[in-house]
Structure formats: structure tokens, C-alpha cells
């Protein structure tokens, strides 16, 4: 599996703001939005383009547009903080939604929402979720996509645990990972260390 770590001073600065426990909800959301812009920019660096013939004020010109804009799929709740910025970067993209919440005691994903197009055979898909911990929520989402014939999936995350990266790798699904950092480990409650805490709570408050 391809793992692309977005290692840039501006990304590191936003991630540091997100990790800081004194950062309030609004500043956390702002840093996540900025960082999403960088992650999506990097995730699309090799995307195929199609030619668009236009006229500049001076002459004819063959320009470019994305050949196939990806379907954006935020994983609720925490992925909601990424979708507006990702959509601003790719305004022509369609958006699907998946809702999953980890059971607090087992850390197993509990699905509660699924709103996706029926056929994803010819569409790249960007799954937006800041946290890849055990990988359970991401794998649940990827399985929904693969069941709809998706063959080109990018997980766009902020922080991953090595355990989550390994789970994606083991799954054999057609996925690559674009992430700002791969942290040390999971703790005994399956939270990422050093991490940034609960990405949903830090944006929206406790559920
Ligand atoms: O890799 P995993 O072990 O599955 O953990 C990662 C998931 O946990 C968080 O969501 P959470 O369940 O806290 O829901 P929330 O976004 O509503 O807070 C996060 O946004 C991921 O979806
Ligand atoms: O560290 C973690 C693990 C799962 N979900 C989060 O929001 N944070
Ligand atoms: Mg949460």
C-alpha cells in the first residue's frame, strides 16, 4: 500500500495547533481546515488531467482540468471538518456520507449512516477522516465503497497509528493513504499517542 506522508512546515504547524490541548474548538476546526487543503493538494498531485480549450484575452490556449474529480466521503462526525475545504479545492466533486462511531468500550465501529452513489466503478474516492486508529472505521467505509465497485480509494487522514496503517495494508483493498503524521502507538483505550485526542469532540464537543 502506498503511504504518502505530507511532511511540510506549514502542515506541521497546523498539526501542532491541533495536538495542543489548549487549542479551543474553533481554532482546532480552523487548523484542520487549513491542513485539509494541504492534504488534498498533495493527494491530487498526480491526478490525470483533461485538456480544456479556452481563449485568453490574447489567444487560444489548451488548459487543464481534473479528468475525473474524486467522490469526497467524509466519515462523520470528525470528517465533517474536512469536507468543506476539500470541496472548495475540488468544487465539481460529488459528496457521499458515512457515519460511524466507535463503541467506547470495545473500540469497534458502530455504523449509523450511509449515503453513497450505487456504482463507483469509474470514480476515484477520497475518504476524509482525521484519525486512523485501529483502522476499524476506515475499513468499514472502504468495504462500503468496494461493495459499490470502487477500485481507486484514497484515505485522507491527519494522524494515523501504525496499527491502523497495518490494518489497511493487510486488508488488500485498493487503497492508498495520504496523512500528515504516523504516530507512535495506540494506548489501552485505542487512542493514538501522542495524537490529538478525540477529533470529533475537539471540533464539536462530546457526543
Ligand atoms: O480507527 P478507529 O479505531 O476506528 O478510530 C478512528 C475513528 O474514531 C473517530 O471517530 P469516533 O468514533 O470518535 O466518532 P466521532 O467522529 O463521531 O467522534 C475518528 O474520527 C475515526 O472515525
Ligand atoms: O486518538 C483517537 C482515536 C480514535 N479517534 C479519535 O478521534 N482519536
Ligand atoms: Mg470521536
From TrEMBL:
Uracil binds at residues 192, 197-199. Coiled coil: none annotated. Allosterically activated by GTP. Residues 6-205 form the Phosphoribosyltransferase domain. 5-phospho-alpha-D-ribose 1-diphosphate binds at residues 77, 102, 129-137, 198. Pfam families: UPRTase. Its EC number is 2.4.2.9. Binds 1 Mg(2+) ion per subunit. The magnesium is bound as Mg-PRPP. It catalyses: UMP + diphosphate = 5-phospho-alpha-D-ribose 1-diphosphate + uracil. Belongs to the UPRTase family. This is Uracil phosphoribosyltransferase. The lineage of its organism: Bacteria, Bacillati, Actinomycetota, Actinomycetes, Mycobacteriales. The gene is upp.
Amino acid at each position: 500500500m502506498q503511504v504518502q506522508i505530507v511532511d511540510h512546515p506549514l502542515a506541521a504547524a497546523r498539526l501542532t495547533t491541533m495536538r495542543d490541548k489548549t487549542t479551543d474548538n474553533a481554532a482546532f476546526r480552523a487548523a484542520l481546515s487549513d491542513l485539509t487543503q494541504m492534504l488534498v493538494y498533495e493527494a491530487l498531485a498526480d491526478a490525470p488531467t483533461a485538456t480544456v480549450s479556452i481563449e485568453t484575452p490574447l489567444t487560444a490556449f489548451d488548459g487543464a482540468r481534473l479528468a475525473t474529480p474524486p467522490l469526497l466521503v467524509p466519515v462523520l462526525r470528525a470528517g465533517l471538518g474536512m469536507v468543506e475545504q476539500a470541496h472548495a479545492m475540488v468544487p465539481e466533486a460529488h459528496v457521499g456520507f458515512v457515519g460511524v462511531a466507535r463503541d467506547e468500550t470495545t473500540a469497534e465501529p458502530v455504523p449509523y449512516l450511509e449515503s453513497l452513489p450505487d456504482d463507483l466503478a469509474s470514480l476515484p474516492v477520497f475518504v476524509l477522516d482525521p484519525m486512523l486508529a485501529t483502522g476499524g472505521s476506515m475499513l468499514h467505509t472502504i468495504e462500503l465503497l468496494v461493495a459499490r465497485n470502487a477500485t481507486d480509494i484514497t484515505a485522507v487522514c491527519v494522524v494515523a497509528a501504525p496499527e491502523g496503517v497495518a490494518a489497511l495494508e493487510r486488508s488488500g483493498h485498493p487503497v492508498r493513504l495520504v496523512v500528515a503524521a504516523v504516530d507512535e502507538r495506540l494506548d489501552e483505550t485505542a487512542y493514538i499517542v501522542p495524537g490529538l485526542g478525540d477529533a470529533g469532540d475537539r471540533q464539536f464537543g462530546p457526543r
